[in-house]
Amino acid sequence: xxxxxxxxxxxxxxxxxxxxxxxLVTALATGGVVGIPTETVYGLAVRADDEAAVKRLLATKGSxxxxxxxxxxxxAGALADWSGFTARARRLAARYWPGPLTMVLDxxxxxxxxLASAAGxxxxxxxxxxxxxxxxxxxxxxxxxSANRSGAAPLLDAASVAAEFGAExxxxxDGGTARSGExxxxxxxxxxxxxxxxxxxxxxxxxxxxxxxxxAFVCTGNTCRSPMAExxxxxxxxxxxxxxxxxxxxxxxxxxxxxxxFAAPGAPASAHAVTTMSERGLxxxxxxxxxxxxxxxxxxDEIYGLTRSHVQAIVGALPPRLAExxxxxxxxxxxxxxxxxGSLLDYRACAEQIEAALDLRLADWV
Length: 366
Prior knowledge:
Residues 18-202 form the YrdC-like domain. Helix content is 33%, strand content 17%.
């Protein structure tokens, strides 16, 4: 039986003793293993940039080899400079953090490269006020593993952690019994990846819907500009997501469509639009035009008008609460001129302008 350790109060809600926080920060700063509460299970935390502390944590758990450790942060702002924190990850963070979602993102934030696995780096924001207060007070990164010996079930309260680990810990925050008693959902998300590595409180269906984006493009007749925008955008999304030309965007929560404010249903794409897309290896031959009905547009997260007049028409047709979803396709403020009646060269120039605008928008989608 390990020697005793006295837990100190680190409540989820209400006032937190700053002396308790300072003492736990000091224990982490000097390389100690500290037990902390979260809303899922209790964790064992160490300073992430201290190799000896990480080894101490693994030895405390009885792990014979390097295990994936999760970087815990007080809020998503800590990830602002990490390239792996993509638009999809930001949407998931906005919806589920603080909360029981661990995301394994591509690469590693600066300084934590030694802790990254082949799959990337795990990170989450716990939904426990005391834990977040402690993390916010640490001037160094903190990684956490569940509070249990290797192969045993994670522990759910401070008394159990104290009984199991005792003086092997340099500190132990008591934040009450873990509310959920179930480990977080672990999702690997990055280029070519959207995989639930560990089931938890969140389902894959809701994660896919949150991470993805439904994107619509609107022009006048839905035979030239918006169909080319739809086709080019779908191709760029597949490439950015790493799913190949035949990949199903819907599997990752994405949908792309096009409409016309004065479209007659079922009209084919113009011949020059079909040729222009074919020159890029893309097929527009089966397109049929669709009217921009408000009830259809209202199901999309992002709605792009090809010109300012299209934007005005869309905003005027939709309920005011949906106006924020509507924008001009080109973020630089330029209209995409209608090539209808023009030469193939005009269509090629139009496609190039659309493609340049899409390149500027892509990072906001994936």
